[in-house]
Amino acid sequence: MTTLEIKDNVEKALEEIRPFLNSDGGNISLVEIIDDKHVKVRLEGACTNCSLSISTMKAGVETTIKKYVPLIETVENIA
Predict the structure, then answer these.
(1) Which helix (H) or strand (E) holds 43?
(2) Residue 33 zone, left/alpha/beta (φ > 0; ψ -120 to 50; rest)
(3) With contact defined as beta carbons under 8 Å apart, do 64 and 13 qualify?
């Protein structure tokens, strides 16, 4: 999988997640992908200070991104 394909697939994963975040007043954006293995995202809106954001990252965001791009090793939310 090329770097461009990885980025495109991560964006597809975020598009799948986004409606759920939007329904709670939040959003997510891709910040960067390092070495085609480490994804940095930014939770936005209501998600920035939500007490469930850690669960959202692990159960929702990370799982969905890894479904689209199994090569991804880590997914991190940066403020």
Answers:
(1) strand 38-45
(2) beta
(3) yes
Q: What is the pLDDT of residues 2-51, one digit of tens each?
A: 999 999 999 999 999 999 999 999 999 999 999 999 999 999 999 888 88
Q: Which helix (H) or strand (E) is 74 found in, with range?
A: strand 74-77
Q: What pLDDT, on the 0 to 100 scale, is given for residue 54?
A: 86
Taking the C-alpha atoms of residue 25 and residue 20, their distance in angstroms, rounded to an integer, is 9
pLDDT at 57: 87
Give the torsion sign (CA, 6, 13, 68, 36): positive
CB atoms within 10 A of CB 72: 20
3-state SS, residue 73? coil
Query: Is the model's pTM score more than 0.85?
Result: yes
